[in-house]
Amino acid sequence: MKKIYWLLFISLFTVLFGSTATANADDQTPEDQFRVGMETSYAPFNWTQTSDENEAVPKSGDSSSYAGGYDVQMAKRIAEGMDKELVVVPIEWDGLVPALKSGKIDGIVAGMSPTEERREEIDFTDPYYESDLVTVTRKDSEYADAKSLEDLNGAKITAQLNTFHYSVIDQIPGVDKQQAQDDFSAMRVALSSGIIDGYVSERPEGITATNVNDDLTMIDFDEGEGFETAPEDIQVAVGMRKGDPDSSTVNDILSGISQDERTEIMDQAVEDQPSSSSGSEDEEEASGGLLATFGDIISQYGVLFLRGAGLTLLIAVFSTIAGTIVGLLIGIFRTLPDSENPLVYGLQKIANALLRIYIEIFRGTPMMVQAMVIFYGVALLFSIDMNRTVAALLIVSVNTGAYMSEIVRGGIFAVDDGQFEAAQAIGMTHGQTMRKVILPQAIRNILPAIGNESVINIKDTAVLSVISVGDLFFQGSAAAGTNLLFFQTFTIVGAIYLVLTLSATGLLRLMEKKMDSPNTDTKIEETTTGHE
């Protein structure tokens, strides 16, 4: 029996930590590749599209979507100069620097300014673009005719989180500085809905926003009346790892691209971006905003949404099953009677303490934080490059396991103590009692909770966008960041989530009815009384 106990214990830690050793070649950088990270949702610098038109590049890990834009074209020039293949890795803004430092990418080409704060973490090449700061507001706003910062007195202004744009807001006299937002998609929605009066951006992005939405306008301040910035604040450079010898090579390549060429590439990017070039002016989608039809979005991004939904479902189903197994193993282990052997008893206490720490950590911290720590921490501390999908499966599984362990423990203790005593009275061991008497009833007791966890996992995969897992939410964000049709895009995404959760709930209810069939109690009773 002791062998069975230790087998359960070893199996538990194999399930929890075994997959951390899984590496994937797609997340490692071959010598003939130049892997760059970008959001792929910050037009005209970078965006997502569903074809290779306009020299777009396939996004790493997603053969059905492509990245285009100014950053992509500049990255292609750099890769060609280095005689390497360009690989575009889609990464959320906050994950770019951790991805670079952990070795998951070779460079950041994402419209990033080489500020002093960032230079403390990574190196930068010479700038490959320079722009002016502008403020985007609504045409019907009282601030639409502003010519100076003083004219924005009292305005509710915001900017993107972790950018110098947010810090310059303080230069506006009497400004009502709003909470920084994660990305431009969120800011555009807030602006259109009237939550804010404007946001700080760069000229190319401002041109994009006003081109695709007639309700918006860009405030171009008079000379000397706008934001005061240092040269590095309005410059855009390639982020490289500290001491990377390729930095000088990139600088040599950039020096060979004239200012006229850079301007031409940017002008072409503004013209080519899907949000401003798709459809004719007579079509509803060309007018931007709410006039675009849901059918147009589905036809353009439907494949991406389906792929994202498939990955979401895979992560949710696998993690629910794996988490339930982890919960069962922990639940069984924690109900084992104390051993009379002092050594085994001590090991039991240590194991229980470790399990308790695991449960409290993963129940007491947000999954988004766990994703960042596990995905980037494993790479930094152990030099293990985990595939993003593998990381997602691991993160959600161990998180679910922490919750399920307590649910399973409650389900086991909910079984009447008399059944434990009856089983022992007829000579059944603890293992036999758990396997044949207690667990069948406990699983039935916790089945509604398992269904609830599966629904939660379907929705919680959205937080994995922080490590750029291409789930449904990530694909929806990329689409909305490109077409600026936030209401329509996320309505479609929400409808898909609803279908997934309703389907999961329906399947679990069918299982409950099956287990509630008249034969169930009879079989359990026969199992107990028939043992000799």
Describe the structure.
- By secondary structure, the chain is an alpha/beta fold.
- It folds into 3 domains: 130 residues, Periplasmic binding protein-like II (D-Maltodextrin-Binding Protein, domain 2); 87 residues, Periplasmic binding protein-like II (D-Maltodextrin-Binding Protein, domain 2, 3-Layer(aba) Sandwich), CATH 3.40.190.10; 221 residues, MetI-like fold, CATH 1.10.3720.
- Helices cover 55% and strands 11% of the residues.
- The chain has 19 helices and 13 strands.
- The strands form 4 sheets. It has a 5-stranded mixed sheet. Strands 5-1-6 form a 3-stranded parallel sheet.
- α14 crosses α16 and α15 packs antiparallel against α16.
- The longest helix has 41 residues.
- It is elongated and about 90 Å long.
- The chain starts with a helix and ends with a helix.
- One of its GO terms (molecular function) is transmembrane transporter activity.
- This is Substrate-binding/permease component of an ABC superfamily glutamine transporter.
CATH superfamily of the largest domain: MetI-like
Total E-strand runs? 13
Backbone shape: elongated
CATH topology of the largest domain: MetI-like fold
Count up the domains: 3
Which structural class matches the secondary elements?
A: alpha/beta
Radius of gyration, in angstroms, nearest whole number: 28 Å
CATH architecture designation of the largest domain: Orthogonal Bundle
Strand content: 5-15%
Q: So how many helices?
A: 19
Q: What is the first-to-last residue Cα distance?
A: 18 Å
Question: What percent of residues adopt helix (DSSP H or I)?
Answer: 40-55%
Biggest sheet, open or closed, and with what strands and sense?
5 strands, mixed
Unreliable spans:
1-27, 276-292, 522-532
Order of strands across the widest beta sheet?
Answer: 10-9-11-8-12
Name of the CATH first level of the largest domain? Mainly Alpha
Mean pLDDT: 84
